Amino acid sequence: GENVEQHPSTLSxxxxxxAVIKCTYSDSASNYFPWYxxxxxxxxxxIIDIRSNVGEKKDQRIAVTLNKTAKHFSLHITETQPEDxxxxxxxxxxxxxxxxGRLYFGRGTxxxxxx
Amino acid sequence: DARVTQTPRDKVTEMxxxxxxxxxxxxxxxxxxxxxxxxxxxxxxxxxxxxxxxxDDSGMPKDRFSAEMPDATLATLKIQPSEPRDxxxxxxxxxxxxxGTDTQYFGPGTRLTVL
Lengths: 115, 115
Prior knowledge:
The structure holds two protein chains of two kinds. Chain A is an all-beta fold. Chain A has no helices and eleven strands.
C-alpha cells in the first residue's frame, strides 16, 4: 500500500514568517493529495487539496505544490498567524479509479506560531 | 452547514466490555470511512463503505471489530471485547463519490478509553 512520510514533526515560527511542511509518497498511482488541519481536541479539517494533473494551487495564504516525478508535495503558509498553530496532516489517496478513495496520512506536523 | 455527527463523544469502559460507536454521515454522502487516531500510529483507516457496501476493512482487527451500515444515515463500529490497546480517538468521515469532489468531511470523533 501507499506510504506517506511527513517532515518536520514539529515546526516553530515567528508570527509573519512562512512555514513549509513537506511530504513524500511511494505509490505513483496516487493522484489526490489533501492537507488537513487539526486543532487540539477537534476534528481534522480540510484546508487545501491538489490533484496530480496540477502542479500548484493557492488559496489566500496557503499554497500546495506537487512534484509527481519526485513523488513529493509541500504545504506553504505565508504570513503566519497564531491561529495557524495546529497539527497539519498530509495525505495521499488511493482512489482506485473512483473520485473518492481511502486516505493514507502522514504522521503530522505540530506547527506553533509565536506572537 | 451540514456536518458528520458521532456518538458518543467520550466513552470510558472496562476491558472486555462491548463498545458501539455511531456515525451519521452528511445527508446524500454515499461513502463512509472509519479512521482511528493514536499517538503511536497516527491516523489510520479501519474500514470504509460505499452505498452501504464494505469496500475495504483490511485495517480492522477482524476478531474483535465489526463495522456496518444498517441504513444510509447510520454507520456503526463495534468492538467486542474491548482491550486497553483499543484506546484511541475514532473518527468517521463521509464524502460523495461521483459528486465531483474528493473531500472527506470528518466527524468530531469518539474518544475511547478502555481501562
